[in-house]
Amino acid sequence: MLGNCLENVRKTVPLVHNITNYVTVNDVANVLLACGGSPIMSDEIDDVSDITSICGGLNINIGTLNKNTIAAMFAAGKKANELGHKVVLDPVGAGASALRTKTALDLADTIKFDAIRGNISEIKTLSAGSGSTKGVDADSADAVDDNNLDSAVAFVKQLAKERNTIIAVTGATDLVADAKTCYIIKNGRPEMSKITGTGCQLSGMLAAFLVANPENPLEAAAAAVCTMGLAGEIGFANMEKADGNSTYRNRIIDAIYNMTSEELNKGANYEIR
Amino acid sequence: MLGNCLENVRKTVPLVHNITNYVTVNDVANVLLACGGSPIMSDEIDDVSDITSICGGLNINIGTLNKNTIAAMFAAGKKANELGHKVVLDPVGAGASALRTKTALDLADTIKFDAIRGNISEIKTLSAGSGSTKGVDADSADAVDDNNLDSAVAFVKQLAKERNTIIAVTGATDLVADAKTCYIIKNGRPEMSKITGTGCQLSGMLAAFLVANPENPLEAAAAAVCTMGLAGEIGFANMEKADGNSTYRNRIIDAIYNMTSEELNKGANYEIR
Amino acid sequence: MLGNCLENVRKTVPLVHNITNYVTVNDVANVLLACGGSPIMSDEIDDVSDITSICGGLNINIGTLNKNTIAAMFAAGKKANELGHKVVLDPVGAGASALRTKTALDLADTIKFDAIRGNISEIKTLSAGSGSTKGVDADSADAVDDNNLDSAVAFVKQLAKERNTIIAVTGATDLVADAKTCYIIKNGRPEMSKITGTGCQLSGMLAAFLVANPENPLEAAAAAVCTMGLAGEIGFANMEKADGNSTYRNRIIDAIYNMTSEELNKGANYEIR
Asked: Which residues are ATP-binding (chains A, B, C) (predicted)?
C-alpha cells in the first residue's frame, strides 16, 4: 500500500542532497521536511561529492542551471552512482532552450537515474532529443488526457525501458511507469499550476520516497506523486475566502506535513496498467 | 480603464523571462502567476538568449548581481531588443555601491527599456550618475511627498524623455510617467516596506502588463503599480490578530490572485498630470 | 533586560549585509525586517566592500557556499573588521564536508567575529577541526541536554575564550557564552526543526541585535536567541487545525514582527552561569 511508503520516509528520515534551482529551493526544503525527510543543498563542485556521500539520495533539477552547477550535477551524480544512492532528475525546461535540452540529455546518458520526473513536454524532449516546452510549462498540444491515454502509457513504458529508469510524467493526469507497469494517477487540482514549484517539490519528495523504499521503487514513486496530488486536494479544501495561490502553497506543504498513511491510502486515486 | 490592462494579462498569459535576485525570486514567480502571467527564470549566458526568445517580456533586476549574471543581463537584453520584446529594469541598490550604479547605468545606456522601476533614490542615481541609496531602501531625504510633488513629477517626466522609457518611482506616493504624462498613485500601505521584495514583485508584474497591453504602455504600467498598491490595501484589510509581515506577504499575493478588473477600477487611487 | 535589546533594534534599524545561502535567504530578509532591522544581500566580490561599508553588521552564512562567494566572504569580512562593524558567522554544515569545515575554520582564523552561531556539531567542528554534522542538522550524539550541561557550558566558554567571540549553540537547549558567562536558554519548540532555516534566520537577527546594542553584546546575543525561541512558542500556540510546517514558518516570523519588549522579558526562559 502507498501509505507504507510514506511511513517508511517518516521512519528512516532520508537525507536528500538537492542541486536545484534558486526559485523554488525553499519550498523543496520545507516539503522534504514535511514528508519526513531531511534536505541539504550544495552545488559547488568541490563540495558536492562529500555532501552526496553522507546522503541517501540526490535530486538534480536544472531549473536555473549554470556552467558551474552543471559541472557539479555531473560530479554529484557520478559519486551518487558509485555509492548506489537513489538519484532523481528533474529536467526543468528541457525543450525550451538548447542548453537545457542538451544538459538533460547528457545527464540522462551519463548518470544512472532511478527516476526522471517532468511535465509531458520535458519528457518528450528527453525521448525525441528536442521538444516544444512552453517555458517551464508543458505545451498544451502535448497534454495527456483520456483520448490519448493508451498511447501516452505506451510511450512512458517504452521510455522507461530504454532509459532503464522510472518515468514520472505529471500534469492533469500523472503517469508513473517502469518498463512493464504504469500507475495512472488522477489526484491533484488544476489550481496547483498557479503555484510555482509544485513539480520541483515533488522531485525532492520522490528522491526521499525512493531512498526509504528500496524494495519497491515504482510503488514508492507512485506514492510520492499521489502524496503531492492529494495534498493539493486537501490544501484546496482548506482554502478560505480571500486565500490565493500564495496561501495555497503553504496549505499544500502543510497538508503533506499532516498527512497520515491512512489518509494517503484512502485518498490516492489511481489505476495500474 | 486600468482594469482592462489586468484583464489582458489574464487573457494572454504573457511569458516573462526574469533575471532577478535570489532573495525574492520565489515571490516574483508567484506574483506573475497571481496576476495571470507565467514566469521563467534563467541567468546563464548560454541559456538566456534561447529562453528570452520564447518569452514576450524580460525583467532585469540587479538585486544580487554578479559577474556572470551581469553578462547574462546584457546578452538577454540585446536579444529581447532585437525581437521587439518588452524589457523592464529594476536597478536595485543603484547608488549603494559602485558596481550597482555602474551596472544600472550601463544597462540603461545599452539596452532599450520599456520601463524602469525603482525607489526614488535608485531613480535619482540613474539620472545623476551617483546617489545616496540606503541599502535597498530609498534615502528618506529623497522621499516624494506633497511638498515636492511638482518638482518630482517634472523630474520623472524629464528622465522619461531623456531615457525614452517609462519611469516608475514607487514609495508612499508612486509616480509613473512618460515624457508627457504622469500618473500620481496613492495606493498602498506603509507596512509594505516591512516585507522584502514588493518592489521586485512589481517589476515582474510590470513586464507582464506591458507585454499584454502593447497599445497603451503607460496605462499598463500604471495599472501594474495600482494593482500592487491595492493588493497591499486589501491584504492589510484581511490581516488577523497575530498576523505579521510574513503572512502579509502571502495576503498581498493572494489579493492579486483574486483581484478582478472591477475591483482594480474601483480601488485605483490616482490622478494624471 | 533582554527587551531593551529588542527595543534598541527597533529604534536604530540596523542595516545588515548578508552573504547567505539561497535556500533560506528570503526568510532571513523577512526576519530582519520583522525584528526591526533592514537587510541587504550581496555576494559578488566587486560589490561586497561597498555594500558592507554602508551597513552596521555583516552576517556570513556558508549554507550554499561556492568558490566565488567564499572569496566574497573573506573580502567582506576584512572590510567589516576594518570598519569595526559587527560580524557574525553561521558555519552551516561544518563537519559535513571538507570544504565547509575548511572554509569555516579559515574564516574563523582570518576574520574577527563578534559571534559564531551554529548547532552543536558545527560548533564542535570549529573547536576540533573536524566533526560529524549530519547534513545541516546536529548529530544526535552531540546533543546538549541536562546530563551533559555542565561540560557543554564549559566547552562553549572555553571556545569563546579561545576564539575571543560569543559562541551561540542552538538546539533543544541553547547556550550563548563569552569566556566568562553563559546564558542557558530553554525557549523554543521541537517542531522548529521541521522548518528549514530557523538557524539562518537567527544568525541574521543576531547581527542586528549586536549592532543595536554595542554596550552589552552577550546580552544582545541572548536576546536574539530568546526572541527566536519565544517566537517559536508563540507561533506554535497560534497554530490552527490543518496548519503544518509551512504555515508555522510564517507564524514564527509574524510573532517576531509583533513581539514587544515586555513580551520578550516575560517569556524569555533562561538562567545565567
From this structure: 117, 170
Tell me the pLDDT of chain B averaged across its residues.
Answer: 96
Query: Residue C137's pLDDT band (boundaries 50, 70, 90)?
Result: confident
Burial of B237 (0-12, 13-18, 19+ CB in 10 A): exposed
Place of cell 556570513: C60
Burial class (CB in 10 A: 0-12, 13-18, 19+), A241: exposed
The pLDDT-based confidence of C203 (bands split at 50, 70, 90) is: very high
What residues does each domain of chain A span?
2-272
- CB proximity A41 to C under 8 Å: yes
Contact of C54 with chain A, judged by CB distance below 8 Å, is answered with no
CATH code for the structural domain at A2-272: 3.40.1190.20
Instruction: Please tell me the distance from the alpha carbon of residue B165 to that of residue B176, in angstroms, as a whole number.
Output: 11
C148 CA to chain B: closest CA distance, Å?
37
Q: Find the helix or strand (DSSP H, E) in which C78 lies.
A: helix C67-82
Between C97, C245, C249, which is nearest A50 by CB?
Answer: C97
Rounded distance, CA B95 to CA B165, Å? 20
Respond yes or no on whether ipTM tops 0.90: yes
pLDDT at residue C125 tops 90: yes
Q: What one-character-per-residue DSSP string does B92-132 give?
A: TTBTTBHHHHHHHHHHHHHS--SEEEE-HHHHHHHHHS---
pTM score of the predicted model = 0.97
pLDDT 10s digits, A46-59: 999 999 999 999 99
Full strand arrangement of the beta sheet holding A182-185: A38-41, A15-19, A57-61, A86-90, A115-118, A166-169, A174-177, A182-185, A270-272
pLDDT tier, A1 (very low <50, low <70, confident <90, very high otherwise): confident
d(CA A51, CA A41): 9
Task: Give the Cα separation of B188 and B196 in Å (integer).
Answer: 15
Per residue in C80-98, pLDDT tens?
999 999 999 999 999 999 9
Q: Which of A63, A99, A250 sits opposite B50 (nearest CB)?
A: A99
A88, A57 in Cβ contact below 8 A?
A: yes
In whole angstroms, give the CA distance from residue B248 to residue B260. 20
Note whether C39 contacts B: Cβ–Cβ < 8 A: yes
Report pLDDT digits (tens) over B172-201.
999 999 999 999 999 999 999 999 999 999
| Alpha-carbon distance C90 to nearest alpha carbon in chain A (angstroms) | 15
Q: Is C38 exposed, middle or buried (0-12, 13-18, 19+ CB in 10 A)?
A: buried
